[in-house]
User: Which sequence fits this backbone?
């Protein structure tokens, strides 16, 4: 795979991300959804009755910027997995569903380069969404009357959300592989749902430290040497998925 | 010596035993070679083997003398094809699709705009240049797919049922483009059900039936349809007799 071929493939995939509806809708839903849920939770706690505070207490803590950011981190973990999983399933699965996969054969830009470019495009999309989320989250915090954030609050938002979202995006790469071997979008989306649901169940049941899809959120909510090591080890999971996906594209045949 | 495309002893079978069996086929430079056969005869399978979309069970496919399984960017940048599905994305405009296709065919950036403009004109796509592909009619989408397959002046062309969806004007534009490609030395393999159209554009016509090449037709010959069915029926009877003798 030459550098020129990869650059051409990345340029095409980034153009698709800008022109198609799915990446734009997924980005808008992720950013606005996370901010809306976090802001609603903090508004409900500050103005609501004690029973609301009792229910949302574990999510927003004592309220204020710290509670707002905590809520945002929790929602971002789950919403990010859903949005990235749908996006990556669409990116890989659409080539089969729309029949464009045949046109990706017999080109000087190899299918290996195309698959790698799709993964690059996912991480570029995630980086752009991260920047938007941080900006909208901080602006919304001011608009809902939390006052100016402290340097520590800003540090949590700017330091943890990029790692959380990028690592969460990586954890959804198995959906790309499943979309490839099932020749469509639905296999990838089903994989996303399974990863998301299993991560939630395992975390709520008190486990999760050993389960890679849970690691980014567990680190973001409670950064420590222990959760950091778990997060780093968990990156082996997407690494294997990336290899499987690229090899599957390299060996692909139109035999079904 | 300039080399074209070749299949030597190619077999590719699927579950149930269908597929292609022991096919030898040469597509010479400067020639439009048509493959005709009934539905399921194996035309698309042969084309897929030639383009690396299917690995043969046995035998080999070569383009420019290079085995397809080891062909690199240098070979593939000289290939244009439309087999199974077009490389057309609904979110791109006609122009955007052609630019994307030029980039993926390895056309250097400074040459892309001129090739895209020419492709638009060659297939009569000027009125739709800034329309998104998803809003095009089936026929115009086919014109766009053909322009995307041919705008980089490939030396090796493989088109499966290229006239599908085209109106008479589009068919003539394609015929002129293919004759021009062949005139410039390209080796061209097309498949079609339209024997009249094939007789107008092809230099050679090979008939395929049940996965085997069974003969040739004279492109400018009279009663092409009759000659085609005579070959197919004779092959069917020969095979049936062979099967009965074996059982």
Assistant:
């Amino acid at each position: 795979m030459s550098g020129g071929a990869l650059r051409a493939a990345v340029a095409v995939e980034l153009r698709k991300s800008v022109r198609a509806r799915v990446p734009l809708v997924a980005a808008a839903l992720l950013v606005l959804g996370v901010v809306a849920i976090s802001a609603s939770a903090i508004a409900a706690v500050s103005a609501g009755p004690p029973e609301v505070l009792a229910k949302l207490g574990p999510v927003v803590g004592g309220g204020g910027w710290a509670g707002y950011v905590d809520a945002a981190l929790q929602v971002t973990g789950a919403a990010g997995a859903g949005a990235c999983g749908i996006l990556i399933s669409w990116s890989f699965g659409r080539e089969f569903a729309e029949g464009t996969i045949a046109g990706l054969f017999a080109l000087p830009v190899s299918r290996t380069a195309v698959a790698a470019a799709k993964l690059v495009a996912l991480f570029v999309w995630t980086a752009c969404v991260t920047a938007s989320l941080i900006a909208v989250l901080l602006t919304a915090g001011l608009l809902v009357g939390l006052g100016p954030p402290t340097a520590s609050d800003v540090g949590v938002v700017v330091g943890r959300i990029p790692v959380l979202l990028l690592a969460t995006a990586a954890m959804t790469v198995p959906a790309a592989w499943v979309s490839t071997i099932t020749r469509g979008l639905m296999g990838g989306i089903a994989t996303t749902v399974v990863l998301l649901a299993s991560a939630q169940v395992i975390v709520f049941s008190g486990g999760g430290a050993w389960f890679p899809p849970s690691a980014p959120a567990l680190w973001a909510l409670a950064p420590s040497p222990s959760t950091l090591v778990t997060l780093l080890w968990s990156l082996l999971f997407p690494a294997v998925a990336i290899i499987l996906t690229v090899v599957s594209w390299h060996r692909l045949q139109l035999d079904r | 010596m300039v080399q074209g495309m070749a299949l030597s002893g190619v077999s590719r079978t699927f579950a149930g035993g269908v597929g292609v069996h022991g096919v030898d086929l040469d597509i010479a430079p400067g020639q439009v070679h048509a493959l005709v056969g009934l539905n399921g005869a194996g035309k698309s399978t042969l084309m897929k083997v030639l383009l690396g979309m299917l690995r043969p069970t046995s035998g080999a496919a070569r383009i420019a003398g290079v085995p397809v399984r080891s062909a690199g960017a240098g070979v593939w940048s000289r290939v244009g094809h439309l087999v199974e599905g077009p490389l057309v994305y609904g979110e791109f405009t006609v122009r955007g699709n052609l630019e994307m296709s030029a980039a993926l065919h390895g056309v250097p950036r400074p040459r892309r705009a001129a090739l895209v403009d020419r492709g638009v004109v060659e297939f009569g796509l000027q009125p739709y240049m800034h329309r998104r592909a998803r809003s095009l009619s089936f026929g115009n989408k086919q014109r766009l797919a053909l322009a995307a397959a041919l705008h980089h002046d490939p030396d090796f062309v493989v088109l499966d049922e290229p006239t599908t969806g085209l109106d008479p004007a589009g068919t003539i534009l394609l015929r002129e483009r293919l004759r021009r490609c062949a005139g410039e030395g390209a080796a061209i393999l097309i498949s079609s059900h339209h024997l009249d159209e094939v007789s107008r554009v092809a230099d050679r016509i090979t008939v395929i039936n049940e996965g085997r090449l069974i003969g040739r037709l004279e492109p400018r010959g009279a009663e092409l349809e009759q000659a085609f069915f005579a070959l197919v029926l004779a092959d069917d009877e020969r095979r049936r007799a062979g099967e009965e003798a074996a059982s």
Summary: The two ends of chain A are 26 Å apart (CA to CA). The interface with chain B takes residues 2, 4-5, 8-9, 11-12, 15-16, 19-21, 98-110, 253-255 of chain A (CB under 8 Å). The longest helix of chain A spans residues 64-97.
